[in-house]
C-alpha cells in the first residue's frame, strides 16, 4: 500500500532561476522603455518638425524595427517566467501485467535519402525498449513502397531476435545496435559478455551486409513506383536459422510493415498522411491506448523512456487531462564549433521548460508518447453507444475500425493468425481514398494539423483537452537524432 501511495513523478520549480529570469526581464524591459521613449521623443523635437528633414524617414524605420524586436522579446519572456522540470520514478509503476500497451509509429519515404540500415536501427531500438514485449507494437510506414525497406524489416526482425535477449541479459543501455558498437562505454562485467558481444557484432555486420547486398542487386528499382503503388501491409515474422535464436524462443514485440496506397491523382499529405494511415491500421491490429511517434532519423537512446512516460500517463492526478509526454531531442555528430545552434539547445533547454510551466501546447513532431483517444475528434469511451452512421461520417466506412475505436488495448489475434497476411479491411484503411467524404478528411487529417513535423504547433487541439508536456532531461538523452548523415 505504501508503494502505491508514492508519487510516480515530481514537478520541480527552481525559485533562484525564476528570480534571476524575472530580474533580468525587469532590467531589460526598463531599458527598452527608455529606448522607446528616446526614439519617440525625436518626433516631437524641433528637428523632426520639418517634413523635408532627411533623417526623419530613417529614424522612423529604425523605430519601427526596434518596436517589432521589442515585441518579439516581450512575447518570448513567457518561456522564462516559470520554467519547471520533472522527475519520473519508473520503479514505482505497477507490474508488467498491469501496464498498458504502446504502439510505436515510425515513418520513412525514400531508401535513397534515408538509408535502410539506418532506418532499421531506429526500428530495432524501438523494439528493444524496456517494456513487456507482448505490449509493444512497432509499425513502419514506407511511403516509397520499396521492396528494399520490406526486406530490411525482415532482416531487422531476425537480428532483433538475437539483439533483444543480449541487451536484456547484460543490461545494455544503448539499444541502437550501430550506436552501441561505435561506443565502448556501455559494457558489462558479466561472465561471457565479451564473447557474446563479438558473436552479436558478427550478426550485425551480416545484417548490414544482407541489406546492402539486396540494395546492390536491385539497384535499378524503379523510382516511379514510389508515387504510384497499392497498399501493402505485412506482419513480420522471423525465419532465422540461428540455433541460438531458436533455442531462446523469447517473445518478441509485434513488427508490422505498412505501405499505404499512393496515386498521382490523390494528395498524400506527406508525413501527416502516413501517420494517419498508421493510426488507423494500428487501431485494428493492436489498438494500444498510447502511441510513440518517431522520425526514422531518431533512435531510442534510453530504453526506459516508455516506462518514464507511463509515470505521467498513469498518474491519476494528471491522466484525465494529459494528452502527451514530450521528450527533448538530442543530436550527435555536431561540429565542435557549433555557432548555429544545430543542437537546438535554445528550444529544448529553455522554451520547452517554460511552456511546461505555463501548461501550453507544444510538440516537436517526434519523440512523444500521446494518448490515442486524444487524436480522435470525438472522445470514445468503451461501452458507450453511438449512431453507426454518425461514426462512419467521422471515422470512415470501416466497421472494423469503428468497432476498435470504442475499444482499447485489445490485440486483434485474427489478423495475426497467419504469418504475412492481413485482413482486407486493413488494406482498405490504407487506401488513398479512405478519408474522402469523412470528417477525418475534411479536417485536413488529424496528424497534418496536429503533428505534421512540428510546424503547426499552435493549431493543436487534441480533443479540446488541456495538454500537459513533461520535459525530461536525464543524464542520458531518451531520444537521439543524427545530423547530416541521418544516422539513427
UniProtKB/TrEMBL annotation:
It is a multi-pass membrane protein. GO terms for biological process: cell wall organization. PANTHER family: X-BOX TRANSCRIPTION FACTOR-RELATED. Its main location: membrane. The keyword Transferase applies. One of its GO terms (molecular function) is glycosyltransferase activity. This is Cellulose synthase-like protein G2. One of its GO terms (cellular component) is endomembrane system. Pfam families: Cellulose_synt. InterPro entries: Cellulose_synth (IPR005150), Nucleotide-diphossugar_trans (IPR029044). Gene3D superfamilies: Spore Coat Polysaccharide Biosynthesis Protein SpsA, Chain A (3.90.550.10). It is found in: Endomembrane system. UDP-alpha-D-glucose binds at residues 113-114, 143. Keywords: Cell wall biogenesis/degradation, Glycosyltransferase, Membrane, Transferase, Transmembrane, Transmembrane helix. It comes from Eucalyptus globulus (Tasmanian blue gum). Coiled coil: none annotated. The keyword Transmembrane applies. The chain crosses the membrane at residues 25-45, 57-76. Mn(2+) binds at residues 271, 295.
